[in-house]
Amino acid sequence: MNVVNYASLNWTCEHCTWVNKDFDIACTMCYITHSGARNLPFQWEWQPNPDQWIPYDKLSSAQIEAAYQAGLPNVTLTAGYFRFLGGRHILHMDHLTRKFEQENTSTRKIRSVRRIADDDNSILMPVTSIDAESICAICIEPFAGDGLTDVVRLPPCAPGHYFHRLCIAQAIKLRDRCPLCAKSVVY
């Protein structure tokens, strides 16, 4: 008989030291995003107030991502946190405008939702030209390879804040701002 040690699947919040489950992306006590989130290929977040975004857990995010990739206009949330809530939450997706909203069908409360992913060109703006000596502001490595395909910038930043796509995608999954000028990334 195989015994699973669930204690080994937990993580401790770097901010408040609360012990969280492996499938939680944000701390369930202080809502700070777990540093391991930077390695996820995508992340879905909901907005409880105008100044905060909180990631869905891994199971809920996987269900939302599958519906997003399939081009579905709606998905009833039944995975992860939502598994015991009786299908009361529906995520509405307008793929053309990239407007995503979560509706609680019991209260009619609507919350904004957003997707952060390594492949997102609406957040990670491609760069058409840079100086030959330019480097990524995060990893401090020069831009090399097949031209500018992996060089991006964030919409609120001034010219000169250039990043490797993967470097900045990982950074904004943890903190919702440019690591250089601290301007918030608005979706």
Fold topology:
Layout lengths: L10 E2 L6 E2 L21 E8 L2 E4 L2 H12 L4 E3 L12 E6 L4 E6 L4 E9 L7 E2 L24 E3 L9 E2 H10 L13
Antiparallel strand pairs: 1-2, 3-4, 3-8, 5-6, 6-7, 7-8, 9-10, 10-11
Question: How would you sum up this structure, described in words?
Answer:
This protein has 187 residues and is α+β, with helices and mostly antiparallel strands. It has a domain at 9-117. The chain contains two helices and eleven strands; from the N terminus they run E-E-E-E-H-E-E-E-E-E-E-E-H. The protein has helices at 58-69, 165-174, and strands at 11-12, 19-20, 42-49, 52-55, 74-76, 89-94, 99-104, 109-117, 125-126, 151-153, 163-164. The strands form three sheets. The chain has a six-stranded antiparallel β-sheet. A three-stranded antiparallel β-sheet has the order 9-10-11, with helices on one face. It has a two-stranded antiparallel sheet with strand order 1-2. The protein is globular, with a radius of gyration of 18 Å.
Summarize the entry for a quick read.
By secondary structure, the protein is α+β, with helices and mostly antiparallel strands.
What is the radius of gyration computed over CA atoms, rounded to a whole number of angstroms?
Answer: 18 Å
Characterize the largest beta sheet: strand count, sense, and whether it forms a barrel.
6 strands, antiparallel
Strand-residue proportion: 25-35%
Side by side, the strands of the main sheet go: 4-3-8-7-6-5
The total of helices stands at 2
Poorly predicted ranges: 1-7
Number of strands: 11
Structural class: alpha+beta
Overall shape: it is: globular
Order of helices and strands: EEEEHEEEEEEEH
> Which percent range fits the helix content?
10-25%
Q: Could you give the distance between the termini?
A: 48 Å
Mean pLDDT: 85
